[in-house]
Each structure stands twice: as C-alpha cells, then as structure tokens.
Amino acid sequence: xxxxxxxxxxxxxxxxxxxxxxxxxxxxxxxxxxxxxxxxxxxxxxxxxxxxxxxxxxxxxxxxxxxxxxxxxxxxxxxxxxxxxxxxxxxxxxxxxxxxxxxxxxxxxxxxxxxxxxxxxxxxxxxxxxxxxxxxxxxxxxxxxxxxxxxxxxxxxxxxxxxxxxxxxxxxxxxxxxxxxxxxxxxxxxxxxxxxxxxxxxxxxxxxxxxxxxxxxxxxxxxxxxxxxxxxxxxxxxxxxxxxxxxxxxxxxxxxxxxxxxxxxxxxxxxxxxxxxxxxxxxxxxxxxxxxxxxxxxxxxxxxxxxxxxxxxxxxxxxxxxxxxxxxxxxxxxxxxxxxxxxxxxxxxxxxxxxxxxxxxxxxxxxxxxxxxxxxxxxxxxxxxxxxxxxxxxxxxxxxxxxxxxxxxxxxxxxxxxxxxxxxxxxxxxxxxxxxxxxxxxxxxxxxxxxxxxxxxxxxxxxxxxxxxxxxxxxxxxxxxxxxxxxxxxxxxxxxxxxxxxxxxxxxxxxxxxxxxxxxxxxxxxxxxxxxxxxxxxxxxxxxxxxxxxxxxxxxxxxxxxxxxxxxxxxxxxxxxxxxxxxxxxxxxxxxxxxxxxxxxxxxxxxxxxxxxxxxxxxxxxxxxxxxxxxxxxxxxxxxxxxxxxxxxxxxxxxxxxxxxxxxxxxxxxxxxxxxxxxxxxxxxxxxxxxxxxxxxxxxxxxxxxxxxxxxxxxxxxxxxxxxxxxxxxxxxxxxxxxxxxxxxxxxxxxxxxxxxxxxxxxxxxxxxxxxxxxxxxxxxxxxxxxxxxxxxxxxxxxxxxxxxxxxxxxxxxxxxxxxxxxxxxxxxxxxxxx
Length: 835
Fold this sequence. Notes:
Layout (H helix, E strand, L loop, with lengths): L9 E8 L1 H14 L3 E3 L13 H23 L17 H44 L6 H12 L5 H6 L4 E8 L3 H12 L4 E6 L4 E2 L6 E2 L1 E8 L2 H13 L3 E3 L5 H37 L2 H18 L3 E2 L6 E8 L3 H14 L7 E5 L16 H10 L10 H15 L3 H16 L1 H4 L7 H8 L1 H18 L20 H6 L7 H4 L18 H34 L3 H32 L17 H10 L17 H48 L30 H25 L2 H25 L3 H43 L16 H10 L1
Helix pairs in contact: 1-9, 1-10, 2-3, 2-8, 2-9, 3-8, 6-7, 11-12, 12-16, 12-24, 12-25, 13-16, 19-20, 19-23, 19-24, 20-22, 20-23, 22-23, 24-25
C-alpha cells in the first residue's frame, strides 16, 4: 500500500553545517517545513546555549515591535495585511539595519509620548485653573467681595492680621467627584464645623493625560478663619489628592487671570495639535513596514531557537544536528542545505546522512485542504503508530454517510450543502478572517466535512423520501386504491392489502404513500432498525479486516491466524448471520404467494430467532407456519454458535502459547548465534546498528514487544483483550441502533415543527393570514435552523464520531504514536495568529 493509506516513511538524518552557513540553511529548511529537529543539548541549561545572546536580541526586538504596535493601535491606525507577500528571514546585514531603525523609532515614540504627557498635564492644570476661576464667580456674594476688597485696600495688613480682625480666608481647588463627600466630612471633623465649603460639579469630564480616560471632577472653595485651620485644610487636600489653585479675591483680578489662562490654553492646544499630527505621520510611516518587521523577527528568533538544538563538534568548526525527515522529502532537504550554503558563499557544502535507529519515528500523514479535517478527527482520538493503517481515508466516506443515516432529510441536507459550498467557494476570502472566534475556526476547518455531510444527507433524505417531513411523488406511487368513492368517504381508515394494492416496487427510496399511512411509524421503525444493524455489522467487519492490513505490513502472519481469524469468525457467524437472515426474510416471504408458510404473516422475528439461537431454545410457530426459514437452519445455527464459542479460547490462548513457544526457540537460536557471530567477527570490528523494523518485537507500528514481559502478564493482557472483544461485539452492535433512534427522532421533530408551527399559518386566510403566515414562517425557519440543523446536526455529528472512535477504530487502530512537528515558518506564524 502507498503512503495514502498509512503514515509516511521517516528517516533519521544527521546534518553537518558550517557555522557561517547555519543561519541561512536553517532559514531555507524553515521555508520548506519538512524537518523535525531533535534536541542534542538536553542536559544544557537554556541560558548556557550557544545562540542565547541572539535569542535575547530577538526578544528585545519583539518588545520594541509590541510597543510600537500598541501605540499604533492606540491611534486607531489599521495595520496592512501581508498574507500574500510574506517576507523571508532577514540576513545578518538586514538585522543590523532593522535593529537600528526600531531603536530610532522607539526612542522617537517614547520622546513624543513623554512630551505629549507633559503638555497634556499642563493643559489639564490650566483647564482646571480656568474651571476654578469661572466657577468661583458665583461663590462670592457682593458683600463678600466688599469685605475682601477692603482687606486688600488696607495696605500693609497681612492675611493673618485680616483674619484676626474677622475677615474670612479661602482655599480653592479641584477634587475627584467620588471623593467629595468624604472630603467634606473630613473638613467638618477637623474644623468642628468652622469651615464653610461651597462646591460645583463640572459638567464636562476632563481627560487623564497618561491614560486618556475621562475624569469627573468638582470645583470647591473652603472658607475659614485662622492660619492654623488653613494649614489643616491644605493637609486634608493633599491627602485627598485635591489640586489647589490660586484664586484672587478681587473680581477684576479673577477676570484678568481667566483671560490670561484662556490665551495660554489656546497656545498649548495649537502645540498639542501639531504634536499629534507629527506623531500620526511617524506612526503611519512605521505601520506600513511593521507587519513585515514582526514576521522577520519571529522567523529570526525561530532560527536561533532551532540552532540551539544543534551541537558543536570538537573542533568548533561544524554544527551537528539530528532530525526526522520524510524519505520523500530528502531531496528537498538536500537542496535547501545547498541553497543555504550558496547564499553565504560557503565553499564547504553541508552534508545530510541517514542513520539507522531503533527509536520509533514520528507519525506524518500528508494531507491537503480536503483530507485535513478528516485527519484531525482521527488524530483527536490518538495519533496513529508509525506506519499504522490510517483510517482517515475511509472516514472521508463512512463518516458523512453514517451522519446522513441519522440526519436523512433532503431539505436539511440542502441547508448544510449551501453552507458548506459557500465556505468552500469563498475559502480564500474567508481564510483571511483572523478574529472570527474559536467556533468559526472549527466550522471553517471542517468546511469539506460539512459539505459532504450535506450531500450524503440529501441522498439519504431522497431514500427516506423526506423533505421537511413531507414526501415527494417523483416516480408515482406503486400502491393502487381499489375501493370505490362511497367506501372511501364512509370509512375513516382503509387497509391496502399488498397482494392486491401493490403494483410493483417504487424505483428509488420509500413510496410516498407511506406519508399517509397510519402504520407509518411501525414500518419506519422496522426499516431503520434493520438498516442500522446492517450498516453497523458491515462497518465492524470492515474494521476487523483492516487489522489484516496492519498484520501484513508489520510481518506478523501469526496474528492473522491467532487474532483476525477467530475475531472475524465470531463476528460473522453470529451477527453476520443475523444480517443474512434479514435479507433472506425480505426475499423469501411474499404477499402474493398462495403457500401459507411463505406469506408475511408467517415470517418469524429475526430478533427472537437470534435469541433462541444463542440460548438453544425453540418458539412454537403460529398454526400453518414454520418456525425456521429453511430446513437446515436449526443445525446450521448450532454449528455457528459452537464455532463462535470455540473462537473465544482460540483468541484467549492462541497468542500467549505462540509467544511462549517462539520465545524458547529464539533464546536457543540467539545463544548459538552469539557464539558463532563472535567467532566470525574480525578483530576490532563492531556489529552494525540494527535499523528500525516493524516486526512483532518492535516497539512501533502497532506491535507490542513481549521479550521482557513475563508470561503471566501476557496471559492477563490477552484475557482482557478477549473479554473486551467478545463483550464489545455485542455492545457495539447494539450501539449502532443509535442510527435508527436519531433518524426517527429527527423525522418526528421535523414533523412536529411542520404540524404545530407552519401548518397553522398555511390554514389562515385573508390579509391577516398573509401577515400571520409571514411571521409564522420566520419562526418555523428559526426553529428549523436552531433545533433541527444546529442541535440535531451537532448531536448526529457527535454520535457519528463515537461510532468511528469506539465501534470502528477499536478493531484495528492502536493510536500510540506521536505527531510529526516540523520546523515550519508557516506553522509558527499561523499558531501565533490563532493565539
């Protein structure tokens, strides 16, 4: 089988790169994205590695880029999208220029930001002073103005003397509005009620110079008497972070001061505007190149992180690295190394050697945009062991088909088709959406799964003849009404005997007449239940057969005899026989025959027959009927049950006894081989390393090594597997009945929505009926999308996922591998965008 059916063949390679070509060579490998490096410096501290200085340098560049990006976003400038023109990793000369440019830009931005904060602080102080001067105009009455003016006219009299004579002093300022009440209470306490406070809330908020957030403040004037009380008030103002401003007591002086402050504010506003324009021009210029710089620095940092995984040889003239590479990509890796050496003019080429190893390689399944979604479903259960059969290829068909069996409705399937087709046809435009959220990313990543699920749902909906709970009479019903008009009108229900009313078989799917039948649910129950068992057994048989592919690839022929044969016999002779009896029952019994034992009334129940088969019991048939469908059936059933019972000890003891026998022979052969081998080795020779192989004793590829495991553990392990398989064969077959249950539930929900919602609007008449139908149709569409498409679709999706993970893949899939994670710039950038 090719690599399409299993993971790619991997090779462990060793690289020898000259130090001057290391940066460019790793850069080329990052662009190709097909190499997974191994850490050769596991015991070396991260801060003691060779390129830690360069990594710190990249961290500093990233910090500067983040700071500039924050400033750009703060100004509302949109960064350009460069998905179509992603720059390559910079060379050392470009790194120096980039570092100098970022240093200059950051310094300029810090200086501009600091100047802007200083000017905004001055602007805030002047604005608060203006507000204080304007709002205190109403705080002073005419009498207060006269008293204060008389104090000023008394030349040579200081403020303390004036207050001693009975004149009032005052302090004016601004305080945050949320602190006003506590501030007023504190002033009352320290002065024992001897402070008179007047305040006025500012209508417009002020802006914080550092953060730009709005601040709501209040202007206050505190009147007092005495120098000691004045000092106390100033201390309280300092404690409450209130800003105090000089406020002349003279009305004329206040007017003059307001005019001067307004003039200074206008000048400062002009300077702030010019500073903002200069800052915007600088940021607009930087924003054009910032995304490219960010990608270049990320690539550079990833290169140095990767170089830290390399080891320096003894002569300090060569870097040595180890990596996993898909064997198909070896020529690409060699070309990347040669291009990296040629880019710096290195005369000594880089070497790539494939080395042998017993270590299990990583698992790499090459996917495209169509198969990636299905591969993700498989990997979510467990990454396949190395070179194990990959079920994702078959899941592309079985997953949407089993989903459609539960979601069979032509109308609902068409909705999924339209949604999936829209995402597929517009995938290039939709792939640019970066902030769509996690749910959108899940839907878009599974766009091909949704499209196929919709197509298969349309197919099964056509088979069920179900479109929004209604049927289509495409080919014309094959049932004929043989009753006259009076009989039809006078009888609420009539029976159509198949021998007289059925005129052949409906060409495709269900006959639309079943939509009108009273026994519709009974018929669909029997039909869909049998279909679910048939599909379930076929799915499990396919899973058991897939184990043969693994056994053959890993050269384990004994496992075919000791595991596959008893498993497939147990499954086919019991449940495969039950499926055969369903088909035989459909074929053997006919309503138009005159032989009574072959009429539908004499058809035995397959379920009762299967139970009697397992319990070796008999059920008396109705009079004139036969208990069995053919003569040799009872003897054949006994043989099948006995063979199935014999398969249990076959599975239980076969493999442990084989391991025990082969272990003795291997020990004897190894003993002789070591003696002769040592004799044949020449002096000074060493045995060649053994390459990784997929035989039974290897650790990879779905095989278990049993060399060091005691026989008691092997017996216990095999007993667990045997019990699990026997019991799971029964439980898994019953588990496939969820196909019937969810299909029936989906059809009934759809019918309930039609009968209890939309049909109410269709029964209305007149203008009011038209308006009512419009509203009811909208509600019906909403319920259909929310309940039947989204909720029922998600439920069917999860049940289908369980059928694949548990019922299908447990028959052959081990999933003990680890994923291949190549060093790829694309994966690094995509991962950071998702974060």
